[in-house]
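User: Please predict structures.

Assistant: First:
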Amino acid sequence: MLHWAYSRPEVREVLNGASLCYPDGIAAAKLAGWELGKDVERVSGPSFILKACEQGISKGWRHFFLGGKPGVAEELAKTLAERYPGLQVVGTCCPPFRDMSDAEIEALCQELQEKKVDLLWVALGGPRQEIWMHRYLGRIPVPVMLGVGAAFDFHTSHQSWAPKWVRAIGMEWLWRLCTGGKRVFVRNVICVSHVACRLLLAAIGRIKYLFIKHAVPQSRKIKCGVNASCDGMPCSSSTPYCPYFEDMQKK
């Protein structure tokens, strides 16, 4: 998703407009951690859906699965119901691989409203699922919509989900690269290469920040007077230098 966010402004707008964005990949978690200056835990969509199903039983959450190939959502509902007795899966839908018509959206909205859905799980693949949720935000009558990518296929064994130890060391992307077939391989090579370059640039920026922070004598650290917490150093780890620092030095 980082690849699409960097290369397509409309996807970036969609993500910025979301109520919650969780770092599904190790690269997103690392970049977020460097930006915030603290460790950020990766939140995997396939793992998240299992946790929500487990914890939602006692809360009475009503789930609806939308996406996947024909029959996959129904298979997922059956699989999870067997795994978590008491789980309420109130419906499934396999939308066409095109923009849904107004009549189709209206029928879906009516079904969701009648079944009082709490969580709508959307598995259309990125960035299509994010764009879909953004487009119908406010029109779809559910409290929460969540995009989970290939989670439906993983939990129904239509695709191979990386072993737990592979996920733990942040190498799930490599597992998918090797097991996902030609289409996934080509797509992931492009995405991984792009994101790897972004990670490298972020790492260089971080190193430059630390170097400036420790190399500049205290006597040369000039407060900019704009930011109350400014100490003459970069305002964040992602910025190579304070935007006001050079101007103040020239003065």
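Second:
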Amino acid sequence: MKALLDFVPILLFFGAYKLTDIYIATGVLMAATCVQMAVIYAMERKLQTMQKATLVLILAFGALTLGLHDDRFIKWKPTVLYTAMALLLLGGQWLMRRNFLHVLLGKQLALPPAVWTRLNYSWALYFLFMGALNAYVAVAYSTEAWMDFKIWGYVFPIAFILAQGLYVSRHMSGSQAEPAGHAPSHPPSHDQDDSQPPRQP
């Protein structure tokens, strides 16, 4: 259910743009995101940091887009969000010696510290890549091409998340699997102790 909710605002945004224009579509995106976050809050009684940041940026950049009648603001919103998330992960790692990815997911995943560090850097690099890619498409191509990129560009996060899932599962299974050739800590019990001779009739 929650996974489907993540796609609703962008699909409505895309559909509204195809039927009308970028400004009406921006209003639809703002309204749909508010409804989406309200539903998530009703289901989970809280919003994650990423969800809060997404809501604030969509409302802020959407208001600028509509108020100034300039679609550059809504087109640059993803780059601002991705860059902010990358700086948060890298700043936490370098300046505060804290892995914020581990802070968010450490209760759900038991992984070695080195794996958490690699995951933190890989997510930061992914956010920087997506931010730069969005900026390039927003500047170099038309609004219609950027809208198409917003839909078909989902191949990047899907591929990245699948790769991360495979990497994490490999380390989880390796840490939980019992070493080969390791004898059980409690040998099976026998009905009769082999060290004692059988009783004679």
